[in-house]
Amino acid sequence: MSKQADAIVAGLRRIEDGSVISNEHTIKWRIFTDKARAFFIKGKLDEAERFFKAALHQAKEGFGLRDPHAASALKNLAEFYVLRKEFEKAEPLFLEAIEILEQSFGPDDIRYWLEELCVILDNTIIFRTGLIKLRHVMSLK
């Protein structure tokens, strides 16, 4: 598939210099992410969660389900849940983000995220899942 066709599939348009023009979803993704962080800083956690979820939805709509931007939005929501000690909600989000990044960039580029996942979730049942994935990636070298 050509770059132009790929951009159309994701709902984006390329201009003469090859750069991508954003669509309404990609703009909302950025705005909702910023709002979520602002609400988090103010301690308004319910609103923050709502905007992190909305940002994830917009990232998937605007960039595509398997795009690194969607992985970033997944990671943001996962980190929010970790801070709230809701590890059972964080784990699948982290794992989905890692899977997207591995498909997009290969195993070398996801090591940092896997290591971060292990540190964040240390001493939890979820830690074992992250450690297993990290060992798998390390064995690919």
TrEMBL record:
Keywords: TPR repeat. Pfam families: TPR_12. InterPro entries: TPR-like_helical_dom_sf (IPR011990), TPR_rpt (IPR019734). The keyword Transferase does not apply. SMART domains: TPR (SM00028). The keyword Iron-sulfur does not apply. TPR repeats lie at residues 71-104. This is Uncharacterized protein. It comes from Aegilops tauschii subsp. strangulata (Goatgrass).
